[in-house]
């Protein structure tokens, strides 16, 4: 089915310290993300890149720490700016496809989108839980706390970004591909009873079974957002990302998952995050990410 897609570049690196992720959106454009989506039959409007009042830099010279969180003001400001764009996209009947940029962008993208749904479901593909708080984070990097904030756990100022209160409900979130969790994240998953599939689960069950369980768990949701971190894949296939963890998924199996997910027709928005061309070789990571995006949006092998 043809989608009316708004392509939204989220050029933020404020959630983590490694330079280059601000170039992710343009790397994906160079890899042909607009062209492949149009070739499938979708209507794509490239809205360009979103900027906040703080200039995004390759390396931030002066990292400010507030409430134990690095670049607090910058992340908050950027999230507000991005939320306005995704809010307007949904309001206009479009499908927001947000390309980043580090995973802290999800605070803005999802906050803007969630206000249009009573029960927005989220499938969170990631090697990490992104469920830390300032008390449990070993680094203070907000990209590792962003899902906790969306669920209403952590700093109230970030929780209240764009809208007051949590943007997501615990029962509406599924995590897939986990293999690097801090103790505080493990505790939160168990305390909140969040449906989470580690890489051990992926290997034991297979992604087809995990997709079936995911869709049953989210059957009550009135919208479905996919937040896809490229570090969910194995570093052998995704070189250009900042927090690589061995033992991840492979492109072929993720394509199978995305092909079947797209067949449900239930996706309403997508984030594609953490592509860092400065850590890449010949833009391979962006090209692989674009390949998977084709299947998210309906490409078929046969």
From TrEMBL:
Name this polypeptide is given: Arginase
PANTHER family on file: ARGINASE
Any one annotated GO CC term: cytoplasm
Gene3D superfamilies found in the cross-reference section: Ureohydrolase domain
MF terms (GO), sorted A to Z: arginase activity; manganese ion binding
Stored Pfam families: Arginase
Annotated pathway: Nitrogen metabolism; urea cycle; L-ornithine and urea from L-arginine: step 1/1
Keyword S-adenosyl-L-methionine included in the entry's annotation: no
Cofactor binding, per record: Binds 2 manganese ions per subunit.
NCBIfam families: rocF_arginase
Natural source organism: Phocicoccus pinnipedialis
UniProt keyword terms in alphabetical order: Arginine metabolism, Hydrolase, Manganese, Metal-binding
Domain of life: Bacteria
Reactions the enzyme catalyzes: L-arginine + H2O = urea + L-ornithine
Keyword Metal-binding part of the UniProt annotation: yes
PROSITE patterns according to UniProt: ARGINASE_2 (PS51409)
Cofactor(s) essential for the protein: Mn(2+)
InterPro entries cross-referenced by the UniProt entry: Arginase, Ureohydrolase, Ureohydrolase_dom_sf
Group of enzyme by EC: hydrolase
GO terms, biological process: arginine metabolic process
Protein family per UniProt: Belongs to the arginase family.
EC numbers, comma separated: 3.5.3.1
